[in-house]
């Protein structure tokens, strides 16, 4: 059995340099999560927001935010988290 010899390769970057160079930049999100939603979905959420402010929905703002976040994620519409939705609910 012949002994294999390492082939010579041209000098290249180190493994870590190659990995760093190959990492794609993060996506640039210029719009807030709610402005990237389809218009009809945003209209529904705005209505829920009005109902919540009027005291017509049971539960707390956090409970509503958790539910909205979960439903958007389940429907593949947004990956916004609890804090993002909660902050949106607080804004007028």
Describe the structure.
The structure is a single chain. With 92 residues, the chain is mainly α. Helix content is 50%, strand content 0%. The chain has helices at 15-22, 39-53, 61-74, 82-90. Helix 3 (61-74) packs across helix 4. 7% of the residues are buried. The model has no long low-confidence stretch (mean pLDDT 87).
- DSSP strand content: under 5%
Number of helical stretches of at least 4 residues:
4
Order of helices and strands: HHHH
Indicate the overall shape.
Answer: elongated
Q: Which structural class matches the secondary elements?
A: mainly alpha
Mean pLDDT: 87
Largest sheet, in brief, is: none
**Poorly predicted ranges (pLDDT <50, ≥5 residues)?**
none
Radius of gyration: 24 Å
The percent range for helix content is 40-55%
Question: What's the total count of β strands?
Answer: 0
Distance between the termini: 77 Å
């Amino acid at each position: 059995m012949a002994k294999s010899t390492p082939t010579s390769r041209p000098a290249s970057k180190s493994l870590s340099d190659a990995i760093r160079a190959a990492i794609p930049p993060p996506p640039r999100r210029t719009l807030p999560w709610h402005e990237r939603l389809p218009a009809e979905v945003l209209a529904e959420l705005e209505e829920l927001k009005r109902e919540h402010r009027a005291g017509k929905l049971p539960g707390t703002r956090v409970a509503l935010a958790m539910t909205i976040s979960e439903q958007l994620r389940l429907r593949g519409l947004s990956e916004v988290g609890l804090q993002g939705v909660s902050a949106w609910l607080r804004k007028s």
